[in-house]
Amino acid sequence: MVVRAADDDLGLERSLVAAARIGDPVAFESLVEPHRRGLHLHCYRMTGSLTDADDMLQESLLKAWRRIDTFGYQYLPQRVGHASTAPILGGAAMVWRRPATG
Questions:
Q1: Cβ atoms of 61 and 80 closer than 8 Å
Q2: In 40, 56, 67, 101, which residue has its Cα 20 to 30 A from 85's Cα atom?
Q3: For the whole prediction, is pTM greater than 0.85?
Q4: For 2-96, CATH number?
């Protein structure tokens, strides 16, 4: 039965990816939701600010939504994580990190 459950999960994921690729936002949300907390934490670690992490996650998910046709579900968390990390590693850290006050 465990094998069947895994097959069912894979079939559901494939269906959600297919639906998201044709523009179904509910399907995309279903794909993203299990990873949202981890992605938000990643963004927080990169920015040091909850507000900036919220913005960064939103921008990253928007990029993933726009590019959903270029990758499958199994790569979604990595692609969103990369989309949130790339601006910082590319020298745009000030876009996300607020200047220190004091």
A1: yes
A2: 101
A3: no
A4: 1.10.1740.10
